[in-house]
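Quality-control log, excerpt.
Job 1 of 2 completed; input and output follow.
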Amino acid sequence: MQKKIPTRKCVGCGEMKEKKELIRIIKTPEGEILVDTTGKANGRGAYICSNAECFRKAVRNKGLERSLKSSIPADVLERIEKELG
């Protein structure tokens, strides 16, 4: 029996990919928005491809804000974009 591989949808391009290929961005219970490097942090998560184009697309189409159910300040978006490289 083959082990099930968890997949998630990128909020930028909308493609389904393996969870480990995507980067998780979370909104903590305190309302802070950050990149979850472990993939296990507590909070509401949104998944995004590891390229900057998908991140820009997610910002443009408000996919990130929709997934996290909150508006995201511009300085936070810039910080996340820098972290993604």
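Job 2 of 2 completed; input and output follow.
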Amino acid sequence: MFNAILRRILPEGSNPSDPVVRRRCGLAAGGIGVGLNLLLFGGKLIAGLLTGAISVTADAFNNLSDAAGSVVTLAGFRMAGQRADAKHPFGHGRIEYLAGLAVSLLILLVGVELGKSSVDKILRPETTALTPLAAGVLIASILVKLWMGWFNGALGRKTDSAALNAAALDARTDALATSAVLVGLVISHLAHINLDGWLGLAVAVFILRAGWSAARDTIDPLLGAQPDPNVVADIEALILSHPPVLGIHDLVIHDYGPGRRMMSVHAEVPARSELVEVHDVIDHIERELGEQFGLEAVIHLDPVEPEDPYTRRLLSLASQAARELDPAASIHDLRRTPEGAVSFDVVAPYDVALTDEEVRAALTRRLEELEPGLRPVIGVDRSHVL
């Protein structure tokens, strides 16, 4: 039955990157989350008042915050699915990341408030009572939250949605928190040991860790994290499979939200290639990148002279000098200028402590030692990927 619900929302053959499909998944998850969390809030609030357990009452308000988070998810996916317009030519996809961040902040807020209440309960313990109604409500809550974790997680994996993955993590965390509350009440009831405050504090720490993890996963794409290395390798393989491309560098991917990515890259081609033929190949590669990876690609041509012996010697010397500076450094776009100088770019990793000017000066000195009379013109890249 559960899989039938999932297939109804995301039928076989659906494209998870399609904004319409993603919007449908987000709206379904948000709507279900609002309804179930409000029901759980009401049930736990009653149970908490009957037992006098701060952990149960805090867990109830955790569900209320989850309902608010589901509202944020609903609004986020609804706005993220809007078409691009004159003011937002790249669409509204990043709102999905903001929705995930908002859910994460709500999780952190609940953790802080639960921690404060639990410390107060430790300092001023009160007698708690476990009733069949309270136990039944907590058990039902655990089962509901486990299902929500599975449901949101399945949708999140299929759509690669940070917001849905955050909601899934929140649901699983809630199930664990409620389980701890239930176990604590049972132990307190049977052994007459008041563990309510301590269990609430342990749950609060767990919730805070989960909230921080979810926040980190949504902040990274907003700040511009490095793309998946496997995707980068697949992109490189596709481009290099088309002659006359000899190599690529300066690959940059801009993420404007799921399914809305732009890419730029430099492709090295023989300097004596027929311009119109190379242009047609590059156009074809850009279309393939769009079809296979959903990328709007722009490819810049860099002419190189791989067959010239002197150019190959200069490339070898420049590469040697760059590796002496840092083993991960590399050289690209090397060519001789009409004025007799040699021009190239060096890719310096971000962990190289030298400034761009210091990198340029160090390479110039080393190349003048290796090849007296050489006049290098060096550009320094802090490469995003390649």
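Post-run check on job 2. Residues 305-386 form a domain with the Alpha-Beta Plaits fold (CATH 3.30.70.1350).
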